[in-house]
Every structure is written in C-alpha cells, then in structure tokens.
C-alpha cells in the first residue's frame, strides 16, 4: 500500500521539481539582497537578462525563417517546441522517430548547433535537454498511475531515440557529435506536460491534443545560478566577510 501511494504521486514530482528549482533561485535572490551592496544587487537580474536575451536573439536570427517549416516554436527563454500536426513525430506507443521528423531534426540541429556552439553562447550553457513527452493516454483499462509509469518509460525512450539518432546522423560533423555527447541530456517527462489544440501547455478546463503532446522539446539550461553564486562570493571576498 505504501508503494502504491508513492507511485500515485509520481506524476506530481516533475512539476514540483520545476517549482522547487524556481523557488530556490528566488530565495537565493532574497538572501543575497540583505548582504550585498545595491550595485551588486543590480547585477543579479542582469545575469538573467543577458543570458536569455542573447540566447533567444541568436537563435531567432538563425532559426526564424524555418521554424514554420519545421513545425516548431521558439520562446523567449530559448525553448524550442516541436508541435506541428502536419506530421507525426512518433506513432502512438512508439519511440521510433518518423521519417519526416528525422528529416526535420537533421536540418534543425545543423542550424541550432551553429548558435549554441558559439563561444559567447556556449560559456553560458550548462546543459541542453532533449525532453521526451507523451499524451496522458495509455490503454483503456490502465489506471492513471499505470498510464503515467508506462508513459514515463516511453517518454524517456523517445528522448533517448532522438539523441541516439543525432549521434549517428551523417548530417552532423564529428566535432558536433562530440559536443552533443558532452552537453546534451535525454530526459523523459511522461505525461506531466500535455498540450492543448494550439500546442500550448494545457490549462484547467481545456482539452488535450494527444498528437501535439507526443513530442520532444529542446531546452537550454544556463549557468545563471552559478554566475549569481560567483557574484555573491566575489562580494564576500572583496568585503572581507570570508
């Protein structure tokens, strides 16, 4: 019974982990607010703005003319979401990339890597996540918990299949594949982030679009937190506090 109760909360964990990460950064801001100078405080939000604005600006320059063709969207944080209903990324229950999606991924990453491998961009990148997602459905007779667990395995397999395909793709150079193996991680989110009919995160009262939910997203994780900690540590050293 205890194991069942634990599994019943699995679908809450990913979203809670995202919330806790955000809260951690908020509390970090609050903590340093009381111990550093006004000049230093002004630098902290600049770190966020500088990293995200530069990343989005450079990606947009290179990708904008082809995003529609690829069935992708680029948001202000640098997240790329493939949610085009004109072609299927994965068949229901499958982790195999469709031929159309293979073609899209090849062309997309050739362009994407020209941006993220730039020294001025790369220095602010901690990791890049290929995020696998599924719809909330599994089989008619499956419980919510059983569906989530099955979809967790499927979403992880989809993310891994995408990364494995890229590492074996003839469209990328040896150096690009080496960079991918060092920076890119494959992560499965199960059905925790379903999409609606226009490819946006599902809100209460909306209907899920299963074909759009079955997807991969490309997310950049920056070194922002490390940069903020360095600013705080530098202040302490200059102030003689440590």
From TrEMBL:
<dbReference type="Pfam" id="PF00691">
    <property type="entry name" value="OmpA"/>
</dbReference>
<keyword id="KW-0472">Membrane</keyword>
<dbReference type="InterPro" id="IPR050330">
    <property type="entry name" value="Bact_OuterMem_StrucFunc"/>
</dbReference>
<dbReference type="InterPro" id="IPR036737">
    <property type="entry name" value="OmpA-like_sf"/>
</dbReference>
<protein>
    <recommendedName>
        <fullName>OmpA-like domain-containing protein</fullName>
    </recommendedName>
</protein>
<keyword id="KW-1133">Transmembrane helix</keyword>
<feature type="transmembrane region" description="Helical">
    <location>
        <begin position="12"/>
        <end position="36"/>
    </location>
</feature>
<dbReference type="InterPro" id="IPR006665">
    <property type="entry name" value="OmpA-like"/>
</dbReference>
<feature type="domain" description="OmpA-like">
    <location>
        <begin position="77"/>
        <end position="224"/>
    </location>
</feature>
<keyword id="KW-0812">Transmembrane</keyword>
<dbReference type="GO" id="GO:0016020">
    <property type="term" value="C:membrane"/>
</dbReference>
